[in-house]
Amino acid sequence: MENLQNKNCTFNQILEMWLEEKRDDVKIQSSQRYESLIDSFIKDTLGTIKCSEIKKDEIIEFFKRGKISKMSISVRKSVFGIIKSTLEIAYSLNYCSYIDLRKIKFKGGKNNIIVFTKREQRKIDSYLMEEINVRKLVLLMCMYTGIRVGEASGLKWKDIDFSKKSVNINKTIQRIKNPDQNSDKKTTLISSTPKSESSSRVIPLPDFLIPLLKKLKSNDNYYILSESEKLYDPRLFESFYERTLKKCEIEHLKFHTLRHTFATRSIESGMDPKTLSEILGHSSVEITLKLYVHPSYDMKKKSIEKATKFVKKTVYV
Q: pTM of the full predicted structure?
């Protein structure tokens, strides 16, 4: 580790220390995301300041005025976490004074979850069920299990349990920056375990999918989408999804909309949040509640009527 002088040490130098530690502790895709956030938001701003000169007001101003202020609350929190952890290292090495960041909070806008309408969902359904193939089949699975695009790309036939009518989510495929600097390819595909422990899960499959899966069943060790042992690029599956929307004459929405739609329909049909949370692979039920449990007026009205069903309805006038 470089022998730094307190008065000359810049925030970028401590960031590099922090990033080096992270490279040893987290998956390569996570360390690359941290590096991208640092390069995009911190390196040319706070990063150039000497640690001994960084003040709390400058950090507050950074989040209020800088380009980070226009980013989602998730990105802002991630960047804040990097800054906070790096300052803790700087303070432990006596390169800066203690900066109390505990009262810095981020106000997020209301979660405007966009989903397909029921009419749009029926149109997609009809198209996918015609002349079924593996891509159409896996897209149907995404619609009715809420699995992510990387998880869908990582499915092998051996992950389908026909006796239990379930699918085992145990890996995800991602395209990342190629760590091999001598390679001509800038990016590469990797298969890894899901992003968190809760993301590894077993999901029950709807009955109507079982005969379709049996019809197309292939070698257990084959990836369903690549129809071979070769990794399947999630971007190819996203392209297929986009073409599906065009053929159904539906406005383009992100692939993740399938997941949002599944979760929203599940809540509407009465699924309890805890069950939905486990199916989606959320790390806590609070995430599910925050994202999807926003009852409409009609739902509230029905709940009130249900709760007061036992009350005598006689009205005296």
A: 0.75
